[in-house]
Amino acid sequence: MKETAMTRFLDANDVAALVRGIGVQHAIMQMADYVRQDFLRWNAFEKSARLASHSPVGVIELMPVTDGVQYAFKYVNGHPRNALHALPTVMACGVLAEVRTGFPLLLADLTLATALRTAATSALAARAMTQAGAQGARTMALIGNGAQAEFQSLAFHALLGVREIRAYDIDPEATARLVRNLASVPGLTIMPTTSVQQALAGAQIVTTVTADKTRATILTPEMIAPGMHLNAVGGDCPGKTELHVDILRGARIVVEYAPQSRIEGEIQQLPDAPVSELWEVLSGAAPGRVDANEVTIFDSVGFALEDYSALRWLHAAAHARHAGRHIELVAMPPDPRDLYGWMMTPDVPAASVQTAAVLEA
Questions:
Q1: Domains of the chain, start order
Q2: Helix, strand, coil proportions of the chain in percent (round to 5)?
Q3: Contact (Cβ atoms closer than 8 angstroms) between residue 78 and residue 302
Q4: What 8-state DSSP symbol labels residue 157?
Q5: Active site amino acids
Q6: What is the pLDDT of residues 104-148, one digit of tens each?
């Protein structure tokens, strides 16, 4: 079996080992570079809002994108009550394929990579939107201390130099876990708080990343200080928001992909809100901030291009470190026209499974 006919497969353990080997903060920084590179190629991509299937308990989505050379898609869910079943709120997998042949190059768990790319994109946007008024921001309020909390904290520490995370969650155990997990990170302090207001005290950046699928009001206008940057991550599907609509009316808003964000983001509350897209801010085509007192919002819902970047990063990192293994994901008969004859031929186990290390030796 030729190497070109094999798909690299990374399961959840492979991805976790890969990230541990690179280092979480280094992985986030590398991911941010990939995201930035791809957003700066914005016009090269064929884009669409994700296809979502909603139910009373959650959502299942497909997220495709292509630049004409490679095609990527992610399967992902969002089920806020999954903790009751000992399951993650978000689970994902994805495929990276070559357009020339349609062959799947990579099949990978994306649950961990989604957490990395979400945090990396948040920090990348904040770095571009805080340069006039909050450059050198050292304190971030983190409202919602679920599975994304460690990644957001590490991303803002690595990319913006945030030193103190003022953490709040309605579940104190979630905050306690965050404190334990990041206790050994040099130069970063996690400060538990008992209310949203206490968390916001002295914060230049505020990240909201709650999980409930509801129109919540986590932040209200009187809580917002001049010059604050709001990283609104939790409002990511129709009927799910975190910010009072009056905050939107007085702020500069940046989104990933406006046609999708107007359906799913905070701006679903304000359909005519003027927005810039992240690629415009990163390229300099639009300002992220115009003065030190301006309130800025990154209304982040997650976009397929970020997953394309995540899959590209995974593919390159796995190749460099010989991670995962190669599998026969799709049927490859010697005679492509004789699929039936190939099916009826007894398997040869020794030839059907090869490790990445053997193929790359």
A1: 3-112+305-360 (3.30.1780.10), 123-302 (3.40.50.720)
A2: 40, 25, 35
A3: no
A4: H
A5: 236
A6: 999 999 999 999 999 999 999 999 998 644 456 899 999 999 999
